[in-house]
């Protein structure tokens, strides 16, 4: 028996770290059941079994530590063999190890579609677990610990070497098949495969390093129990690796594969009828048609930022800003969807007549000619899309002269791009001053009548941080792109063109279309902004409803592509180049 610090000391370090890792397992288990309450019973049972096995291991390790430190205090001769509770912990930990390994081997089989590698790995796992059982039996039979026990030396040698080889083979095989599948996969699937590849390396390296460290210390340091420290940690690393992979697998699968319609963000459920757990008790919380629990906290938080008292978070308010048979004067530089709605939806469904004017340059006579007795709305968008021009309506004397009360009565925010969760739901928010109580009551009624579907704002803080990072990446990328002659203008305020605040890429029409389909990180879509980087061709996508003759006036042409920066950061510039 060597010095205590190199024998019992190492064992106690392993016990303490193992119990700490059990705490992490407990947190991951709690997060799993809270995040996936409707998951399959198999996975829920598996997670529960692993946690109970880890609990049993932690209890046995605690009892063994108490025996070694307290009960055997003053009796160093008793330390030549493990307490029975410590041996039991080794057995239970071995059950956790090989249960998780069996799941990883099954995952390898499902991913590879072949049995050539999973079957040998599975047989090796059964063999190694039988060695663990046999070692525990030998230890319980009062066989002393190594180096005084040749009976255990060969068992432990086979266990450590076999575990290290098995872990490396599982991780290496998964990485190989993921990379092989990636070369044959479609573009939209490569992001998921990249995530799986990185996570397989991370978890595989962690578990493999512990197994290799146990084997190396076992053969190189025969006079201490450093190997026991690593041996006692193996089960905790495997448990955490499995629990993490379950959570990451769900997130990656839902975000990268569950988009059969081609949606960049996974779709939400548009249903207004949901199963009730009991009479009047909805799974979604309070009945959403009468005001969800998410809407009101979001309204309070955002009102405090904007300084307004009355505002509404809905996806229906655009259709009720004007009554029927009314006249609207709109700036001509509006989003293509606004133009389409006013000309093809509101005009036919509500009898609304819209006149589009260049309000920045319109004269008194032009505005007077379009003034009607039934005019009840002047619509101005700032900044505009896709050129991001900022409105200077406060400096329009010709327009203000025709408005009895020259102030904005309603401010409409688009929540689609940012506040509402990066394009998950198309939505707007009209903001009213408190003296418009009558109109506010009307909107409250419509919220109930049309069953608006807002989104929560729990991720508001992370959105703010992400937005700052994206702006930094955009500025850095723009400095690179501005040096290229084919980028006629980079529309970011860092270059002094403050009336332009996004990146527009000018080129020939044929080149523009080819550019859209050749990028890897930028997804061709309506450039609404989001966590995914998007590239848009306004002439055919957002502004397809506008006559080509109007494009030049709006700064739009067949040679314009618009980039919307997501969270991919450094790789974006290289993707464009």
UniProtKB/TrEMBL annotation:
Xref: Gene3D superfamilies: Aspartate Aminotransferase, domain 1, Type I PLP-dependent aspartate aminotransferase-like (Major domain)
InterPro entries the record matches: Cys/Met-Metab_PyrdxlP-dep_enz, DUF6534, PyrdxlP-dep_Trfase, PyrdxlP-dep_Trfase_major, PyrdxlP-dep_Trfase_small
UniProt-listed GO biological process terms: cysteine biosynthetic process via cystathionine; transsulfuration
Record pathway: Amino-acid biosynthesis; L-cysteine biosynthesis; L-cysteine from L-homocysteine and L-serine: step 2/2
Molecular function GO terms recorded: cystathionine gamma-lyase activity; pyridoxal phosphate binding; transferase activity
Cofactors (names): pyridoxal 5'-phosphate
Annotated keywords: Amino-acid biosynthesis, Cysteine biosynthesis, Membrane, Pyridoxal phosphate, Transferase, Transmembrane, Transmembrane helix
A Pfam family it matches: DUF6534
Keyword Transcription regulation in annotation: no
GO cellular component terms, semicolon-separated: cytoplasm
Residue ranges occupied by any DUF6534 domain in the UniProt entry: 163-249
Positions of transmembrane segments: 6-33, 45-69, 115-134, 154-176, 196-219, 225-243
Organism superkingdom: Eukaryota
Signal peptide boundaries: none
E.C. number(s) listed in UniProt: 4.4.1.1
Family statement: Belongs to the trans-sulfuration enzymes family.
Protein's recorded name: cystathionine gamma-lyase
């Amino acid at each position: 028996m060597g010095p205590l610090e190199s024998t019992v000391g190492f064992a106690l370090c392993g016990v303490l770290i193992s119990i700490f890792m059990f705490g992490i397992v407990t947190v991951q288990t709690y997060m799993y059941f809270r995040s996936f309450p409707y998951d399959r019973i198999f996975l829920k049972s598996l997670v529960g079994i692993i946690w109970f096995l880890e609990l049993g291991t932690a209890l046995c390790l605690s009892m063994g530590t108490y025996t070694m430190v307290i009960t055997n205090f003053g009796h160093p001769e008793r330390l030549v063999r493990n307490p029975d509770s410590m041996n039991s912990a080794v057995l239970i930990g071995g059950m956790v190890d090989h249960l998780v390994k069996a799941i990883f081997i099954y995952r390898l089989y499902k991913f590879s579609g072949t049995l050539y590698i999973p079957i040998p790995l599975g047989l090796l796992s059964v063999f190694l677990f039988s060695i663990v059982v046999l070692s525990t039996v030998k230890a319980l039979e009062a066989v002393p610990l190594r180096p005084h026990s040749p009976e255990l030396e060969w068992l432990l040698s086979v266990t450590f070497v076999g575990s290290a080889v098995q872990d490396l083979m599982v991780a290496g095989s998964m990485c190989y098949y993921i990379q092989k599948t990636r070369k044959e996969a479609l573009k939209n699937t490569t992001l998921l495969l990249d995530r799986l590849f990185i996570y397989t390396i991370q978890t595989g390296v962690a578990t493999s390093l512990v197994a290799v460290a146990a084997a190396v210390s076992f053969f190189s340091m025969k006079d201490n129990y450093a190997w026991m420290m690593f041996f006692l940690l193996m089960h905790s690393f495997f448990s955490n690796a499995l629990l993490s992979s379950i959570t990451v697998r769900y997130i990656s699968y839902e975000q990268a594969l569950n988009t059969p319609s081609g949606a960049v963000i996974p779709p939400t459920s548009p249903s207004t009828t949901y199963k009730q757990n009991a009479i009047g008790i909805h799974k979604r919380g309070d009945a959403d048609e009468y005001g969800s629990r998410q809407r009101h906290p979001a309204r309070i938080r955002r009102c405090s930022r904007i300084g307004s008292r009355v505002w509404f978070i809905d996806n229906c308010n655009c259709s009720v800003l004007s009554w029927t048979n009314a006249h609207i004067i709109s700036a001509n530089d509006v989003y293509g969807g606004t133009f389409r709605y006013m000309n093809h939806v509101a005009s036919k469904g509500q009898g609304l007549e819209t006149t589009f004017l260049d309000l920045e340059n319109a004269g008194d006579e032009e505005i007077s000619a379009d003034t009607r007795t039934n005019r009840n709305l002047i619509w101005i968008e700032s900044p505009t899309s896709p050129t991001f021009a900022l409105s200077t309506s406060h400096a329009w004397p010709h327009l203000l002269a025709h408005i009895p009360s020259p102030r904005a009565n309603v401010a409409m925010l688009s929540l689609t791009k940012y506040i509402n969760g990066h394009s998950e739901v198309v939505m707007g928010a009209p903001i009213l001053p408190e003296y418009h109580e009558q109109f506010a009551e009307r909107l409250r009624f419509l919220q109930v009548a049309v069953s608006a579907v807002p989104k929560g704002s729990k991720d508001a803080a992370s959105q703010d941080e992400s937005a700052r990072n994206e702006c930094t990446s955009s500025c850095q990328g723009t400095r690179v792109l501005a040096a290229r002659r084919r980028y006629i203008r980079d529309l970011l305020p860092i270059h002094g063109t403050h009336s332009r605040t996004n990146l527009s890429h000018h080129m020939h029409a044929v080149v523009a279309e080819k550019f859209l389909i050749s990028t890897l990180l930028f997804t061709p879509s309506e450039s609404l902004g989001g966590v995914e980087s998007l590239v848009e061709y306004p002439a055919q996508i957002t502004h397809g409803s506008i006559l080509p003759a109007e494009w030049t006036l709006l700064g739009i042409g067949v040679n314009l592509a618009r980039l919307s920066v997501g969270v991919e950061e450094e790789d974006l510039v290289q993707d464009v180049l």
